[in-house]
Amino acid sequence: MSVENESRLDMLSIPITCTILGVCLDDSLCAVVRVGRSLSEDSNLPAPQRKMFLKLTLFVFNIALSLNSVFLIWQFFTDASGCFPVTLSQSITFHIFMTVFDGYMLYKSSLVLGNFLAFQIVACLCILYRTTWAVVDIVLSNLPVVWDPAANMCVFLPCPLSTLNYTLGDVMADVVSTFATIMAFVRQGGFEMDRYGLSFQLVKEAALRSALCLGLDTFFLLFVYQWSGSAQNISYAVQNLIYLKLINLELMWKGVRDRQHMEATRRESRNVKSEDTPTLTRSRIRASENGAPLTESKK
Asked: What is the pLDDT at residue 82?
């Protein structure tokens, strides 16, 4: 990037980043309210109907991401005394929502694959690797926080080793999820699967989510962490927005699955009735030939 373009980006960095983070904050808080209301409404339902895991995951993710957005905005306006606590809080909330997202993505892939034990072991190892390097990054990346008096703002100096490894943890989770999705697609008949069935819908949404996350995390690994300053701040804000949209789409996907599952059930019910009707008709004809009246039973 040329010096002239970099200076222009520096001038626009704060308003662009704050605008994107403002959208993230608005969406995440709205999701917290919706999920919280749904959790309170579900308290009267039987345990199997509550779908608590999905809703609690969305609740924790959106709380962590909304706090992360607040701290990312706050770091532009804090003074030297607030530099360390703000960057530390931003780092902690970032790792919370990213680890929650990876865990949920692996959990959904495990469901698609049929809770295969070997996959669950690999998924747990991925989460353990990601969590370990998150803790290391929280410690190492927040020790050298520097206050830049010329720019009148905090300068966050991430640890290259921990940044590389926790991003590799994200990429590993994406690769494992994508592999599980491909395996599930092959095991369940490939393109011969019922496109209105629940299995196809789960495989489809898992494939879309895994592919998008793999591309995003690979992009960050190869390019974004080589940048600094304004470009990196904007990239982090965009990353927050993309992950927020991906996980909150789960509620939409769930509605689509429920509708298509109901449609498939109705279609199967109609097929059963159409197969039973000729049999009943033949039975009545045989009965009439034997002298029995053709009467219909009344309920």
From this structure: 83
